[in-house]
Amino acid sequence: MVSLTIDEREVEVEEGATILEAAEAASIYIPTFCYHKRLMPFGACRMCVVEVEQMKGRLIPSCSTPATNGMVVRTNTPEIREARKTLLELLLIHHPLDCPVCDKGGDCKLQDLAYEYEVTENRFQDKKFDYPVDYYSPLIERNTNRCVLCGMCTRVCDEVVGVAAVSFVNRGFSTVIGTNFESVLNCEFCGECVNICPVGALTDKLFKYKARTWELKKVNTICSYCSTGCTLTLGVKGNKIYRVIGDDTIGVNKGSLCAKGRFGYQYITSPERMNSPLVKNEDGELIRATWEEALERVARGFKEVRERHGADSIGGICSDRLTNEEVYLFQKFMRAAIGTNSIDHAGGFSYSGLLNGLSNSLGYAANDITLDDVRNADVIFVLRSNLSETHPVIGYQVNMAVKMDESKLVVASNRTIKLNRLATLSLTHKPNTEITLLNEMVRTIISRNLYDHAFVSSSTEGFDELKTQVARYSEDYVEKITGVEKDKIREAARLLSQGKRVCILISSGLGTLSDDEKLAQAVANLALLTGMVGREGSGIGFLGEKCNSQGALDMGALPHLLPGYQEVSDEKVRGTFEEVWGISIPSQVGQGALEMLLSAEKGNIKGLYIVGENPVVTYPDSAQTKKALGALDFLVVQDLFLTPTARCADVVLPVASFAEKRGTYTNFERRVQRLQCGLNKLEGVKTDLEIFTELSLKMGYEMKVSTSEGVMQEINGLVPLYAEIKYPLLSEEGVQWSLPSDKKKVSLYSRGSPLGKYRFIPVVGDEMAQEPDEEYPLLLLTGSILFHSGSLSTKSPQLNQVGSGGWVEISPEDASKYQLQDGQAILVRSKEGEINAQVKISKKQVKGTVFIPYHFESQSVSLLTSKNLHPTFVELKKA
Amino acid sequence: MAAFRTHMLICAGTGCTSNRSLKVREVLEDELKKRGLQNEVRVVITGCNGFCAVGPVMVVYPEGIFYQKLTPEDVPHLVEEHILKGRPVTRLMYAEPITEKKIPLLSEINFFSHQVLRALRNRGLIDPESIDEYIARDGYAALGKALTSMTSEEIIEEVKKSGLRGRGGAGFPTGLKWEFCAKARGDIKYVLCNGDEGDPGAFMDRSVLEADPHAVLEGLAIAGKAIGAHKGYIYVRAEYPLAVERLKIAIQQAEECGLLGEDILGSGYNFDLEIYPGAGAFVCGEETALMTSIEGKRGMPRPRPPFPARSGLWRKPSVLNNVETLANIPQIILNGGAWYASIGTEKSKGTKVFALAGAVNNIGLVEVPMGIPLRSIIYDIGDGIQYGREFKAVQIGGPSGGCLPASLLDTPVDYESINATGAIMGSGGMVIMDETACMVDMAKFFLTFTQEESCGKCTPCRVGTKMMLDILTRISQGEGEESDIQTLEDLAKTIKTTALCGLGQTAPNPVLTTLRYFLEEFEAHVIDKICPAKVCKRLTPAPCQNACPVGIDIPSYVALIAWGRYQESLDLIREDNPFPTVCGRVCTHPCEYDCKRGETDKPISIKSLKRFVADFEKKVGRRPVTPVKITQREKVAVIGSGPAGLTCARDVIQKGYAVTVFEALPVAGGMLTMGIPDYRLPREEVEAEINDIRSLGVEIKTNTAIGRDLTLDELQREYEAIFIGVGAWKSLKLKVPGEDEFEGFLDCVTFLKNVNLGKREKPGDKVVVIGGGNAAIDAARTSIRLGAREVNIVYRRSRDEMPASKEEVDEAEHEGVRINYLAAPMRVLGKGGRVTGLECIRTELGEPDVTGRRRPIPIQGSEFVISADVIIPAIGQEPDLSFLGEGSSIKASKWNFIEVDPDTLQTNVRGIFAGGDAVSGPASVIEAIAAGQKAAVVIDNYLRRDELTKGQKVPKPRMLVDLIEMTEEMETYQRPEVPTLSVEERRKSFKEAELGFGENTAVCEAKRCLRCDSGE
After folding, report:
1. Pairing mode of beta strands A49-52, A72-74
2. Closest CA to A87 of A128, A35, A33
3. Is the peptide bond before B306 cis (omega within 30 degrees of 0)?
4. Do A357 and A521 contact (CB within 8 A), yes or no?
5. What is the pTM of this model?
6. Residues A719-746: what's their mean pLDDT?
């Protein structure tokens, strides 16, 4: 610790802290423009100058000068005030002073400081800046005239986001912040620059002339897109969201957001949203109905199917965007009111695979790392994940770790991704060879004796089997299979085994196709071998696709597990639930989502309840899905929009969005965070929670709980992992389940594995089974892109503006091989079906593969894929 | 190895190369070969010799003879004389600038003999592209010593002992810097060489890199060993292609010799060097910006701490040293720190290289021991100021440094002493300025540079320097306000204390030092609106305006005519001169002699243009004059209503004082009405202008003679200030025999006055006028008009010396006046009481006399007689001071002129001022007006503040009229002749002889003006 005197007060701070940080710790205010705690010291604005007795003669920038023992600092002498006032005068000479029409008015640092320093007149006069305003960039307006050149946008864009779309241009007085060749922005549109800009130089176009900042009610809630669990601050006026900002004082994201979080909220006010239940009439048309009629119809429909074909002929698929409480009630409805275990969600065939594998190896079906761990890691291994697109804010942490702290980054990917630019080591492998790659790393670590002997011998079992199994690999063989040079694999193994705080990150989602369970076990083997399990700051991070991917699993939206990973087949477990629920629960393990669709086609499933999912667009083999839905006796779809899936339904129930309801989400860190209700519900809709309770009653079963808090209390009693998740304890940081409520940083595995010992589970990849044939020569890769999440985001016009589908990405080699031009219209054909697309030639793509995002209804890649989850091969035909 | 009897060392530095030194070498080698001398004489190419201003230079050994400014054409002669005949060629030697004495030996030339070479020790001696020659002068011996027999600590200790400080400018102790870096944690470290020399006019680093690149390489390798670095970068400006080229060659040679790379000299130490060409941003000379630039980013400084010694290039511990610093290292290691520290001052050891430039006689690169006074560099090495001018200031430290005055010339050159003056040592720029330099302009120049080179990152530097520049620009354009100086200083201090990096922190130095040492010059710009050095264009009148005694804004009034804005033009003239009509006709127009167009063509007809606007007003109707409101209690009396008195009266009343003019004659106007004949200046023209003055409220009491109707004492009682402008009305005597003995002898002034008063009688048939002034011409031409048959003028010098205006003389000759040049009157001949002739003697012109004109010397025996019945001597006048009364307290000179303080025009009596012909003797109208104008200023100051200030108004442009783009047509306009009456008409009448320009002529003529006032 260092102790110093600031403004006659003794202050103690940690070594390495700057004077500014010391002052902040002591609540002594120092004005700044260019300082931000997330960014590296920059020293441009000079507003933070202070006087240091030991460094007389010059004013000292407090933002970049470390506090040292015995330093005597003054922050507010007349000389300092004079200097700051002069600096403000200098900034105000050319600043347009269009505050009355500036969106930043009332929330502007320049305004505030001019006020504070009473800059009532200016000794200097000059013409106002007259740079052209960039009105043409999507989503963001850049007005250079208002810029104070603090450089925050350039730094946040580079140091945090890793894009560097804007930078300093020109020299001397002509210096401005600009884009390459003064083009319009073509960036990730995360709006971090807008959020950090202290003045009105960068503004949110959606917000322009909509409201004054002081009129907005600030509502902190949790983002509904990915599993990062970012806190959003909604700016609400009337019953409308006018903007979303990140507040750097709260949330796991510390104010950072991505394009989806910041600009993707407008689907809430989309005119396409349904505001009335729809019931299919005799002519097969969906017509508006009252809630009473619709719910009646649903209850009757399910009852009829159950009577005719038994409870197991009914299945339920829910979304992992439902809150924990809603998922819980959904599975309760299915199990108690309907009487079936056929419950699943989209994460059920991807994320749950990973977590299942993980729990087999380590004991918990959850991650043991946090966002901070990623930021602070010294080695990060990103595998099979385009993090920067699927989980941008986690991507930021990786970028920051590498850029600011020189952390090592190993990227293994089947196509070139943004993180490759940052990587210490890039392993570009053939698709679906991850397990082999991991096994070779395991072999290298064992054979080079790089593993953690003490940990392996004391805490694991199965090491010898693992050793024997990986011994079959050889460098040359693996190089051939994976396409990765052996030196690189060796180097990756070395880096991982030498890291102190190591994070392995793998994202999952509808687009990812591989043997997830085995992949998780292969990763676990590597983690165990290097002793990173349970080690502080280290761990595996499996990243679910949706905001509540973890919660949906925790809450038992699975055919074999009751909430809290409790086996439905276990009589004792059932007994506990039955006691609380007052009804008996079927013991038979139900069907999974894809299985349900397959059996529906065969006639084994007759009734289906789809909540918030859109399988026609997003599930593999769209044609089959449609056939299956068509074969049903009774289909209920509950959604915000009349999706292609909903259009097949007998009854459609409109629901409230995340901003209109309460409840909790559990992010990838197992952090349970509360949603705050920012808006009154759209007239005519109900929350999923309301629907489940009302419907249940109509089915003749009373849920007994009707509020989200009430539901959580029931969960507290039945799910030991959630025993401590109590609403009053859920402050803005939320609570990570299984942690004691005193919230001290403790590993999930601080008391070792619940399995007793961690298990090495030898696995092998089956990449050899997947070879293209002559007819379908190209492997189809599909997945998420930066601006979308599932199909929900496609209802947000702003996101479509910056990222819409319609293309197929192919490598330049294949483009020339098949004589395709950029932008050319083609037909993509697989065994299952065909779609139209435009060629996009991209160096990101590896030869022999194509990439098509899966979000878009208009270009449903699901028409090409199959439900067996095997790799899909396609051919490209000129249209 | 072959032995040569003579070595000829030709400089191949950038300066000499650009003056074709390589061609000289080529011709030289050919010539030697042609004469079969190639085995006797060796031609060697060397690095920069330093004396770049006289390049291409060559030194011939063994004698050490220094040749300068060589051309390929000089070579055959040089070989013939020097090499074959052993006679060095004096013509090509250096000449001492003042005595112009030739100095054959390099060692005896002041420029070289006062220098002490350490960093430049190999300059001009070795071929920079040959590692062998470097090695032959102990090159790489230091590296060998450092690698094989010294530890890192020992190397650092030796450097610390040497007291070497950073030669880039900041002066941080080099050894200490190395020690910090050596102790910093980290496996990878870097050593960097800063060759991003960007100061305007400085080329120390370039010269070292070009002349002795291996010294820098060796210094870097030693530094690398000392701090534990294995990789070094040399950051050189891409604008130094020769330096880059020589470095490349040097690195390659060193690598081939195993002096760089793996396992150097078997010591196990590896060291690689890379050249990084900088793109020419001045800020990249700042160490953190330089590192950012090498990292491939925009060269912007980073905050320090962390200091580079801990976290530098790629955040690894790094040491950055300047080229010159590194060039010193090998010798320190070889000869020991103590050796190095043996010269210099207590805290500044060794030597410093300066690029001496500017107004000094010897320009070039010099290396001097620390502690040497500035004076010695400028006067001993630099051989003083060019053209015998006065030293004014020395800018030391480039744009980051300061400007020091003559009073600080004895400041020793060491870090502390220079810092104490407000300047900095800097990297070694030294620009000498003489009296023709303007300090505001100088500050502006450097600020323009730093302002443009600011990286734009921190607010004070980016905006602050721009605002300083704006203020300076305003000041230099005469738009400065008194508060600007304070604002400038306050802003400069804020920038200095708050800027991020060295560039911003030092950018205000030139301004702060000039404010400190040359404040009065700023005040002259701001308060007096003048640029004393006549550099700032907007504060420096155009040559014509400068030449005008009353400082009329001539370019503007001429330009207004060109635009057709005649009334504005006339109004502008009247601001300074109440007599545009008069001056448009009779002015001696000194302005036209200084006209720039006159240098290549004929001058603008400024006088006639003035007449044109005055006449134009007459046509459209004279602008009515509004009486001045009398706001002051004090009253002013003016004695004499000539141009001096009336101008004084007008200017005084315009300041709100009541003015009364006393005129002895019945008509106001003095010489204007009574001296100048009507055909030159019609009476009514003068009267109109006098009436304007009356209309302002000036009371003119004619027929009121002081000393006759009123006494001076009485005036003094009633009036708080008195201006005497009585003119010079008494003609001087010829002082020859026969003067005043015969009838027909007329007093010139009286003759003209009487004619003007209406007495138009023929004086006689044969008139002889004696004298060469306008009065003489007037008397002669008047005589013609009054019917004289023969009119002769006798003048003792030639036409060139004649004071009368040229046009007058021309006109007189046209009208039939015979002018006898080079003839002096000897005796007046008479018969019967009447004049019959004048005996004259021929003269020739001898040496100039005190007036600067050549003295006429009579030629004995050349006497001749001009017959005459009337003789009018017009050889000068003196004032008639009888009005002052006997024993007047007002002092007169022995020539009977009133004596005044030349600055204030006050006589020895308080409150009484005098000017015009009464003070100066007969002079021009415009000079009389100037005297009146000057007196008015003084009188106002005297009455208002009871203090006497200089009355001399410094002319300055009153406005800037838009330029008319000069077309080809305008360029070819000829100066028009002024139309006149025919000679016949003229001879008979007193009608105005000159007719003035028509509108079209005037506009075309006005468009010929080159507009020197625009500052472009």
Report:
1. antiparallel
2. A33
3. yes
4. yes
5. 0.84
6. 81
Q: Which two tokens stand for residue B684?
A: 């009514």
- Which residues touch B286 (CB under 8 Å, ≥6 apart)? B301, B501, B502, B503
Beta bridge partners, A237, equal A240
Q: How far is residue B309's CA from residue B167's CA, in Å, rounded to a whole number?
A: 17
Q: Is the pLDDT of residue A315 over 90?
A: yes
Set of chain A residues whose Cβ sits within 8 Å of the Cβ of B198: none
Question: What does each C-alpha distance from B117 to B331, B340, B341 come to in angstroms?
Answer: 11, 12, 14
Note whether A155 contacts B: Cβ–Cβ < 8 A.
no
Is beta strand A60-61 parallel, antiparallel or unpaired with respect to A217-222?
A: unpaired
DSSP E strand stretches across B128-271: 190-195, 231-237
- Residues in chain B with CB shorter than 8 Å from the CB of A151 are 457
H or E element that contains A494: helix A486-498
pLDDT in tens, A621-661: 999 999 999 999 999 999 999 999 999 999 999 999 999 99
3-state secondary structure of A231: strand
3-state secondary structure of A237: strand
In the DSSP assignment, the letter for residue B915 is -
CB contact under 8 A, A43 and B490: no
pLDDT of residue A745: 67
What is d(CA A107, CA A93) in angstroms, rounded to the nearest whole number?
A: 20
Q: Rounded to whole angstroms, what are the CA distances from A300 to A303, A340, A596, A639, A840?
A: 5, 17, 21, 20, 50
As a residue count, chain B comes to 1016
Task: Identify which of B302, B305, B459 has the shortest CB distance to residue A90.
Answer: B459
Residue among B460, B463, B491 minimizing CB distance to A173:
B463
Cβ distance of A171 and B298 shorter than 8 Å: no
Environment class of A91 (CB within 10 Å of its CB; exposed 0-12, middle 13-18, buried 19+): buried
- Which of B293, B463, B466, B497 is best to mutate for the A interface (most A CBs within 10 A)? B463
Would the pLDDT of A334 be above 80?
Answer: yes
Quote the CA–CA distance of A548 and A545 in Å, as a whole number: 8
Report the SS3 class of residue B466.
helix
According to DSSP, the β-strands at A651-654 and A634-639 are: parallel
Residue A236's DSSP bridge partners are A217, A241
d(CA A649, CA B125): 97
ipTM: 0.91
Give residue B434's Cα distance to chain centre.
Answer: 8
Q: If you compute the radius of gyration of chain B from its CA atoms, what whole number of angstroms results?
A: 38
Query: Rounded to 5 degrees, what angle do the CA atoms B6, B12, B13 make?
Result: 135
How far apart, in whole angstroms, are the C-alpha atoms of residue B632 and residue B513?
A: 43
Partnered with residue B838 across adjacent β-strands are B828, B866
At B733 the pLDDT is 86
Question: Per residue in B699-757, pLDDT tens?
Answer: 999 999 998 898 888 999 999 999 999 999 888 888 888 888 888 888 898 899 999 88
Amino acid identity, position B907: T
Question: Among residues 450-509 of chain B, which lie with CB inside 8 Å of chain A?
Answer: 451-460, 462-467, 470, 487, 490-491, 494, 496-500, 505
Best residue in B311, B455, B457, B503 for a mutation probing chain A (most A CBs within 10 Å): B457
Instruction: Give the model's pLDDT for residue B757.
Output: 86
- φ/ψ (deg, to 5) at A725: -85, 90
Segments in chain B below pLDDT 70: 1-2, 951-954, 1015-1016
For B706, phi then psi, to 5°, come to -75, 140
Q: How high does pLDDT run on average in chain A?
A: 93
3-state secondary structure of A835: strand
C-alpha to C-alpha distance for B361 and B356, rounded to whole angstroms? 10
CB interface of A with B, residues 47-76, below 8 Å = 49, 57-59, 61, 63-66
Q: What is the pLDDT of residue A565?
A: 95
